[in-house]
Amino acid sequence: MKNKYETVIIFNPEYTKLKYKIKKYKDLLKKYSGDFKDFNVDDMGEKMLAYEIKKHKSGYYVLIRWQGTPENIVELERLLRTDDIVMKFMTVRMSDDED
Q1: Using an 8 Å Cβ cutoff, are 89 and 47 in contact?
Q2: How much is the CA Rg of the chain, to the nearest whole Å?
Q3: pLDDT in tens, 14-62
Q4: DSSP E strand boundaries for 1-99
Q5: pTM of the predicted model, to two decimals?
Q6: How far apart are CA 44 and CA 60, in angstroms?
Q7: Starting from the edge strand earliest in sequence, which strands make up the sheet with 86-93, in order?
Q8: Where are the alpha helices (DSSP H) in 18-68?
């Protein structure tokens, strides 16, 4: 059974091919979601951080609403953890009655 998730990813804003990386993760989560009609990518842009992360005072935020299985989360987080331009990430499960 697939569940609804939201993933926030903070990228290093100094990376020159940032749009390519965002598309890579968007396409991966779209593949996991299948025909999920509420799939959404909110590109929030560069924002100041509350505290420095890896000596950066700002980060590039992307919020993705998607649908998948717990196995998909394991694979996604493995990829995010090994990607040098990802500064932080968080995935939360949405309740079934939330929009």
Answers
A1: no
A2: 14
A3: 988 899 999 999 999 988 888 888 889 999 999 999 999 889 999 999 9
A4: 3-11, 40-53, 56-68, 86-93
A5: 0.89
A6: 7
A7: 40-53, 56-68, 3-11, 86-93
A8: 18-33
